[in-house]
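User: Please run a holo structure prediction.
Assistant: Happy to. Please share the sequence and the ligand.
User: Here you go; the ligand is S-adenosylmethionine.
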Amino acid sequence: MTNEVMRSVFSLGELFDTIDWVCERCHARYVSILRFKKAKATMPKKPSKKKQGTPERLMQFGFAYAPPLIIGAAVSNKVFDTLESGGKTIEQVSKTTGASQRGLRAVMNALVGLKLLKKNRHEKYSLTPESEAFLISGKPGTLAGFFAMASTHLVPDWLHLNEAVRTGTPPVALNQEATGPEFFSVLVENIIPMSYPAAMVLGQSLGLANARKPVCVLDVAAGSGIWGIGLAQQSPLVRVTAQDWPEMIPITRRITQKFGVADRFTYVEGDVLKANFGTDYDIATLGHILHTEGEDRSRKLLKKVFGW
Ligand SMILES: C[S@@+](CC[C@H](N)C(=O)[O-])C[C@H]1O[C@@H](n2cnc3c(N)ncnc32)[C@H](O)[C@@H]1O
């Protein structure tokens, strides 16, 4: 199985062919640029017209913090959930949610501007296909929880960026057991929609549905367990060992139960570098972990898991 899997994912021949192809294309493009430059150098020069810039793009960056907070405020005040049953006026939304009419008007008009709500001429607001699909809480694939985290868990850490740049130290060391679980226990379920489709595609491209003997998967830093879940759903022959800190494992357990695959999961508690997750896996996934581990620990982890 290991070899089959490895062949289908990492065909080195194919990889080098691709690199060669890219290099050839780059080379051809480089030569044609040089030719073009040479030809241009011999042409009479036109008087240069400098493009007049506008600050539009920068101004958009300047307020880019606002949309996630606006969406988060609407989620937290149940605006999208309230509109699921049909279009409503500000007064009606206020009555159902208990939020102020003034606040709702500001946020809901901003959402119209962001094309996440529609407003008709009778001042009734309704969902768009996008907000209906992804911003109603409790729906599979919802991002409601992720946006609700913007003001509580995401933006507050970004506010320390100046200091982090000056000192080279993050505001919170998320890769430490003393501080990490508080953040990750809120995050992991909310980012399931980010990885679930990719985990399913991974399972399909590995051909797991055709497995004839047990396939052992190691899901390192499993969190919700979504990478292992996506693979386990491909075949009853897939068995997953999910590793995370002890505080996180009850969450992993609950979510694997929710997806109906818990009976094929075993759990290993501990730090990624210290936990003993054994050997002889056919597949190992490291979902969204290296970026918080830093280079040294990531190299050690890759060596521990893959022997690189
Ligand atoms: C960003 S979440 C990713 C979860 C999941 N793999 C995914 O892709 O959705 C990172 C996970 O790694 C765990 N984690 C982070 N640093 C860790 C460490 N040093 N040892 C053990 N687990 C760690 C966190 O508890 C969290 O569940």
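The first strand starts at residue 117 and ends at 119.
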